[in-house]
Amino acid sequence: MFNPCKIQDNLYWVGAIDWDIRFFHGYTYTTRTGTTYNSYLLRDEKTVLIDGVHHNFSGEWIERISEVIDLKKIDYFICNHIEPDHSGAIPKLMKLLPKIKIITNQKAKEGLDKYYPNNWDFQIVKTGDTLKLGKNTLRFIETPMIHWPDSMWTYLEQEEILFSNDAFGQHYASQERFDDEVDFGLIMDENAKYYANILMPLSSTILRKLQEIQKLNLSIRMILTSHGLNWRKYPDKAIESYLRWAKGESKEKVIIAYDTMWFSTEKMATAILEGITAEGARAEVYRVPISDLSDIMKELLDAKGLLIGSSVANNHILPTITKLLAELKSLKPLNKIGAFFGSYGWSKDAPVKELEAEIKEAGIKLVLPPLNIKYAPSPDELKQCFEFGRNFAIEIKK
Ligand code: FEO
After folding, report:
1. Does 62 share its domain with 149?
2. Which of 17, 128, 307, 341 has a 20 to 30 Å separation from 143 between CA atoms?
3. Atom of ligand 1 at shortest distance to CA of 151?
4. CATH of the domain at 71
5. Residues catalogued as catalytic
6. Are residues 69 and 166 in the same domain?
7. Are residues 322 and 275 in the same domain?
8. How far is CA 314 from CA 85, 252, 345, 348, 375, in A?
9. Residue 376 is part of which domain span?
């Protein structure tokens, strides 16, 4: 079993590493190496456990905590978020230690009561409330919809440590616990994937809340998240990245996502790519059924443009593209422009209307008329595709 990790005097990581999980939330978000459920033990005159773990790891969580402290010495459990990846093991903890006081906010209490009917001892806190532990004081900051209504952060004042729960986390399992122990590009890539696939639709709330929190002038030396690696060297970069993404800032980059039946739409995609790059913009091409949707969403996070291509079958766009559109409608990428292309046999207009409605619902602004080509593109039509790509790149650069 992996040992507890001493972060600094009297503060330990006592979470769990889930090397096996490959689909988080049970569907599109894939993890490359798994994830972690981070939990922290802080010792002072009063001892506090901050954040829990997934039900599957309740046994090893308790064992790991026991390696640091006699369980009976725990006074408080702080629940920053009730989603079961963090709350699933609470019933086991409370069965062993029914006298622990659970510190959380009202929304979280309501959620815990619903998930795990109980008679636990709660202390309800709200933004600005503090809890004195001895030398240390914890301050609570409610962060509703980053990313559930109950979400909350806990700030350790004397040490300037923020326990941010899901925020700034990554679904990444490794033996390391900190940002300065891995390649910086790796942690930012996983950070972006997490933001794109979980937080992107909440960007306006996140921006407002982050700006509110900036006004509190908290000095943040370290961010301890509930998933993946922690930010002890680059906490500012973690916050900056969220501000950038929440504002919808993007690069001159285009994502071309398509599917094809007889490779006509694929030929169009290639010619469009050449047009975009000829104009000096960057483009990435994904054939949707053989690509990872959550990676496409991560790449889309800092791209300005999205081109969607589909062949037509039975008067509809292909089901793989329907699935892509469903994900776009769910995640609502910010400030993107788009256009549509594809080949058809005998039904041109109905699929275009279908696709235009869906793209608009995803909040993507269409900036070019669709490019539809019958059966296979001729050499002249491939030139049209090239020009379509160039024109889109011009829109990207505006
Ligand atoms: Fe990691 Fe929202 O739970």
Report:
1. yes
2. 17
3. 2
4. 3.60.15.10
5. 25, 81, 83, 85, 147, 166, 194, 227
6. yes
7. yes
8. 42, 35, 10, 11, 14
9. 251-397
State the pLDDT at residue 1: 62
* Domains in the chain, number: 2
Question: CA 245 → CA 5, 95, 288, distances in Å?
Answer: 31, 41, 24
Which residue in 44, 24, 26 sits closest to 34, CA to CA?
24
Structure confidence by residue, pLDDT tens digits, 167-223: 999 999 999 999 999 999 999 999 999 999 999 999 999 999 999 988 989 999 999
| H runs (alpha helix) in the chain | 58-68, 84-87, 90-96, 106-115, 184-194, 203-215, 235-246, 264-278, 293-301, 319-331, 349-361, 379-397
User: Does the C-beta of 54 come closer than 6 Å to ligand 1?
Assistant: no
Closest protein CA for atom 2 of ligand 1: 83
Tens of pLDDT, residue by residue over 363-388, are 999 999 999 999 999 999 999 999 99
Q: Which of 192, 221, 246 is the last residue of a domain?
A: 246
Identify the three-state secondary structure at position 133: coil
Specify the residue for token string 């700034």: 168
Tell me which residue has its CA closest to atom 3 in ligand 1.
83
Look up residue 87 and give its two tokens: 């709350």
Quick check: CB of 83 below 6 Å from ligand 1? yes
CB 370 within 8 A of CB 351: no
Mind listing the pLDDT tens digit for each residue in 283-342?
A: 999 999 999 999 999 999 999 999 999 999 988 999 999 999 999 999 999 999 999 999
Q: Same structural domain for residues 63 and 88?
A: yes
